[in-house]
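We were asked to recover a plausible sequence for a given structure. The inputs and outputs are reproduced exactly as logged, with field labels preserved.

PROBLEM: sequence recovery
POSITIONS: 247
GIVEN STRUCTURE:
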């Protein structure tokens, strides 16, 4: 019988992480500095820096795992957390959708077709759950999860993300280090861990880059600073994009 780390063991290793690991912020800023100096189109610079910063976040997660001597028990095809509400800025949504537009034709078409069917199926329920006030309603996450609405980018036949490499920070930084059954048996498991604090380094570097472009008077498809401070549920951003593409 396979044994898993206990919550107590995970807690102790997390304490070790806090005492012995320091995030190297320079890693994030070096990414945008490098792309800022490239002789290429601004839109390409934005997309490249966005995607590389996401990779840096994932790399940071791996280094923290190594420091703690733990590995996530999350498995391919496990998608319980893909029913959680994801809230991102308009700037992140634009970067995600622009990246999808740059996917190979067949993959992009598969996503746009999937989204059309998704919003036809879940449209009414989404109106209800995405009207939940995520700033004022302390129980909004549980209410959203209980609606059983999957992420718009989840292929529910394979339980795989259709845009995995550009998935947002909340998806990227949520992990389970103990028995994976807890995710199946609990709506909001207390045993899982979120490293969403990495958003600060990621967004800090990305914001600095876009601010630099703004001062250069060319931010491509980003309306800065408005897009930075406009937040909404991911399904709402993707619905607007999907409808725009179908016109």
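RECOVERED SEQUENCE:
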């Amino acid at each position: 019988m396979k044994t898993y780390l206990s919550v107590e063991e995970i807690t102790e290793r997390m304490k070790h992480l806090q005492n012995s690991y320091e995030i190297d912020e320079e890693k994030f800023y070096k990414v945008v500095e490098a792309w800022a100096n490239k002789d290429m189109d601004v839109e390409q610079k934005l997309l490249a820096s966005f995607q590389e910063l996401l990779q840096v976040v994932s790399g940071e997660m791996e280094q923290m795992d190594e420091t703690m001597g733990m590995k996530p028990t999350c498995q391919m095809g496990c998608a319980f957390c893909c029913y959680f509400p994801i809230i991102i800025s308009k700037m992140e949504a634009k970067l995600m959708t622009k990246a999808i537009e740059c996917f190979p034709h067949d993959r992009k078409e598969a996503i746009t077709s999937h989204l059309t069917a998704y919003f036809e199926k879940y449209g009414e329920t989404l109106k209800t759950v995405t009207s939940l006030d995520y700033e004022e309603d302390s129980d909004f996450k549980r209410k959203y999860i209980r609606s059983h609405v999957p992420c718009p980018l989840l292929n529910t036949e394979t339980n795989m993300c259709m845009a995995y490499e550009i998935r947002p920070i909340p998806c990227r930084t949520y992990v389970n280090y103990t028995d994976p059954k807890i995710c199946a048996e609990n709506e909001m498991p207390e045993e899982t861990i979120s490293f969403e604090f990495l958003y600060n380094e990621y967004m800090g570097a990305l914001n600095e880059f876009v601010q630099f472009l703004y001062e250069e008077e060319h931010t491509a498809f980003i309306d800065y600073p408005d897009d930075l401070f406009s937040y909404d549920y991911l399904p709402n951003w993707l619905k607007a994009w999907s409808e725009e593409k179908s016109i």
